[in-house]
Amino acid sequence: xSTATDTTDTTDATDDDANATTAPSSPSFGGxxxxxxxxxxxxxxxxxxxxxxxxxRLALQSLLxxxxxxxxxxxxxxxLVERIFLPxxxxxxxxxxxxxxxxxxxxxxxxxxxxxLKGFGxxxxxxxxxxxxxxxxxxxxxxxxxxxxxxxxVPTLAWLPLIILxxxxxxxxxxxxxxxxxxxxxxxxxxxxxxGTPREYIEVGRIFDYGRLRLLRxxxxxxxxxxxxxxxxxxxxxxxxxxxxxxxxxxxxxxxFLIMRAQELLHSDQLFMLIVIIGVVGFAIDAGLRRIEAxxxxxxxxFEG
Amino acid sequence: MTVTxxxxxxxxxxxxxTRGLTKIFAARHGTARITALENVSLAIRRxxxxxxxxxxxxxxxxxxxxxxxxxxxxxxxITLDGLRIDGPGPDKGVVFQDxxxxxxxxxxxxxxxxxxxxxxxxxxxxxxxxxRLVGLQGFERAWPAQLSGGMAQRAxxxxxxxxxxxILLLDEPLGALDALTRVYMQRELEKIWTREKITxxxxxxxxxxxxxxxxxxxxxxxxPGRIKKITxxxxxxxxxxxxxxxxxxxxxxxxxxxxxxxxxxxYEI
Lengths: 305, 269
Known about the structure:
The complex is a heterodimer.
Chain A: H1 2-22, H2 37-45, H3 51-77, H4 89-101, H5 105-136, H6 138-153, H7 160-167, H8 171-195, H9 199-207, H10 212-249, H11 255-264, H12 268-296
Chain B: E1 14-26, E2 33-45, E3 49-53, H1 60-68, E4 75-80, E5 83-84, E6 92-95, H2 107-111, H3 120-133, H4 149-161, E7 167-171, H5 179-196, E8 199-204, H6 207-213, E9 216-221, E10 226-232, H7 244-265
Parallel strand pairs in B: 3-8, 3-9, 6-7, 7-8
Antiparallel strand pairs in B: 1-2, 1-4, 4-5, 9-10
């Protein structure tokens, strides 16, 4: 949570400050227009204190993860659980070093990452284009809607055997599977976003004689953008999940394969390590997307909790 | 019915002319039809400030939307500068009750919304000029969400004026503002009208606002929407709301309103 909202906070603050300093408080509009200035001054005075709430949030956000770590340590320290079920934090750290140095962890990681990027890129790209076309044209919607809705009802992983049969267990099959999984959330949210563009804004475009392309670029797409980002973030999460599962079911490389191998060899320390890595990477992907979102949607101010 | 100028002796140039304008909305289901406008004929001189007042449902907004070219199906004729109005365009500026600034564009970008075909430097110059006109200098890079209601409405007015339209159409532009801001904005609107010398047509339900700003007040009755009374206002500007003539005109118009309201709110048991 912290990254996205923090960036919004700071951009807002700088924008506000810019206003406060550049606005030569014109006498022509009385006290009302300056209504928001006292708040800005207040903000500026508190600037040196701004780190305080941020630290508080950081502490709050890390509270549970740290507690979990401590519990884990205590459980293993006093041998309350068998090692094979719950390895010590230290041995998981050692497993990481071993995987990294002798087992070419980076190599497997790279393979997984590239597959996800390819699948996500393809799925999100096609989802955006098809979503836009469907959103803008009822004809396209009638043409594609029923088929896509049918395909959507079949869980992604149910396609796996067929895709392996057609494309093998290699990169291509996984990329296609991920692309399929990412396509739907992006497609549906783009469609919804475009259809949700307020009529009132379209009218503003009509008044200024906007053509279809300009209407799309300046009104429809910006209006759909919050929805599109919901789809992208959702899709990114799914793509990582699908990749790991696909690699677990049929692969000779990649993080998912390493998990299966660790299970077969009863390396529970490696198992733990891989789960942490997969979680952290997924978290990082989402945080990155949230940063981009916060930047692109900086005009938006919602309920901040 | 036409608005005949009584004070001006020079031949008045007619800017907008409607003849027998009738608009019927067909309900989506069934055969119910609503006559929003019936036989509305009106002539508006170039540079005139005309207000259209009436109870809600009297078709005044429909009338304005037809003027703006947003409604294109109607009977009768309506011309701007002698040409039939058959669609929206930059010659007709529109200000809505909700400011309709696009939240993802800065105030400056919103004001320059209709200037995309001009060279960048000229865009910037005009945006500056109109920011100044509405007293928003320094807010060019602010987001609409950071503006107060009055400021946002001023930005909307600037956006409508920046492409130099022939006529400015205002649909209850001050309706969403609090009473104090409203009086203040009425003064600002008058200043802008004086400076820009542009024809303005404003829809409002506030009789006093109409009298304060207009050369002509057109009162409409509801169901079907018809012109009920046309009141020319020959008072020096800026107008004094306490002036007895002003007060009398207001009373007259309110009586017309009041009769209507009485039948609306009285009910039988």
